[in-house]
Inverse folding.
């Protein structure tokens, strides 16, 4: 019974992480290109690459968080340790996301005539 509840909590946390990262990606696009806070000097890019990045984000962030052990219950971590682990996981996920983005951009443009 406890394992079933733990799996449910883990699934809810992973789902919340996916939803939060997808909303953050959307919010970043809207803030950057549709609101006058920071002018887009080179014009507004196509939304296509951002839509391609959505599934990559949805896979990368929960995978990295899971590999960092953030979905496992841990009662021994202090608040500072937890903040450090979350920050480290976010950095690793961001680096992985930049790598995936660069890979997608290079190989999606390579196929074009």
């Amino acid at each position: 019974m406890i394992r079933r509840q733990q799996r449910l909590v883990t699934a809810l946390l992973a789902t919340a992480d996916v939803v939060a990262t997808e909303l953050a990606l959307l919010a970043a696009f809207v803030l950057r290109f549709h609101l006058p806070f920071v002018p887009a000097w080179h014009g507004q890019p196509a939304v296509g690459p951002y839509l391609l990045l959505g599934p990559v984000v949805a896979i990368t962030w929960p995978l990295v968080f899971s590999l960092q052990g953030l979905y496992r219950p841990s009662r021994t971590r202090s608040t500072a340790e937890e903040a450090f682990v979350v920050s480290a996981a976010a950095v690793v996920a961001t680096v992985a996301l930049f790598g995936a983005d660069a890979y997608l951009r290079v190989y999606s443009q390579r196929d074009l005539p």
About this structure: The mean pLDDT is 83.
